[in-house]
Design a protein that fits this description.
This protein has one domain. Helices cover about 10% and strands about 45% of the residues. The chain is built from 2 helices and 17 strands.
């Protein structure tokens, strides 16, 4: 079984588990068992490498699925726009590959490997601590990220697999310390109802079955809740 099929199967399995367990989307509790939330919207800044499609905030669940997944091992935040049989968003995101920095696996600077393009995105942010412990004003490092970019014309075609972690035993998403320690990847709790994922960091990017390269991605994702 090749790498691409394994990626798709593992992603579908993760999504199925999330949907079964978390039928109601809500942020980590602050200790009030009666407190209920539903996600109102998610937005992407438009001056970064990864940006919105120009259609304004993504309403949830109409145009995206977002879930905070505590307690789990590890706690995570999931953002999905396309999963066959479950999610079919009319929206997409734009990735300005031609404006990003690129490096070869030998850490040599190289020319951009792709032009600006639109995709569906499925992104997973994994934490070493508990999201319920993040207070207003806290900035928490995100040690591991996995991103799939999906063909807007074929939802079963996972074109790009992009990720970052510092664990060399996971070569698909491993980024060496020379690059991993450069930049920042943070979750910021701006208020009780607003969470921000701020990224400017190096990732390893695999295009289809072609050998990977390193790419520096930037994006700011703002998740806003409303009581429900």
């Amino acid at each position: 079984m090749n790498r691409k099929i394994l990626i798709i199967l593992s992603t579908v399995l993760l999504c199925a588990i999330i949907f079964v367990i978390y039928s109601q989307i809500q942020p980590p509790s602050d200790g009030d068992a009666d407190e209920n939330y539903s996600i109102y919207q998610l937005s992407l800044d438009d001056d970064k490498v990864v940006m919105s499609d120009g259609g304004g905030p993504y309403e949830v669940p109409e145009s995206a699925f977002v879930a905070f997944v505590p307690p789990s091992s590890p706690d995570s935040i999931v953002f999905q726009m396309s999963q066959p049989g479950t999610i079919y968003s009319a929206r997409n995101i734009t990735v300005r590959f031609s404006d990003a920095q690129w490096k070869s696996l030998s850490l040599m600077d190289i020319l951009p490997k792709h032009a600006t393009e639109s995709y569906y995105i499925n992104a997973y942010f994994f934490f070493s601590g508990k999201l319920a412990d993040v207070n207003v004003g806290d900035r928490v490092n995100i040690p591991e990220i996995s991103i799939d970019l999906v063909d807007v014309n074929n939802r079963s075609n996972y074109i790009w697999t992009i990720g970052r972690c510092d664990n060399a035993t996971v070569p698909l998403v491993y980024v060496p310390p020379q690059l991993y320690d450069e930049g920042h990847v943070e979750l910021i709790r701006e208020s009780n109802d607003v969470w921000i994922i701020d990224v400017d960091a190096w990732f390893i990017a695999h295009y289809a079955d072609v050998q990977g390269n390193y790419i520096r991605l930037s994006f700011i994702m703002t998740i806003t809740f409303r009581e429900g």
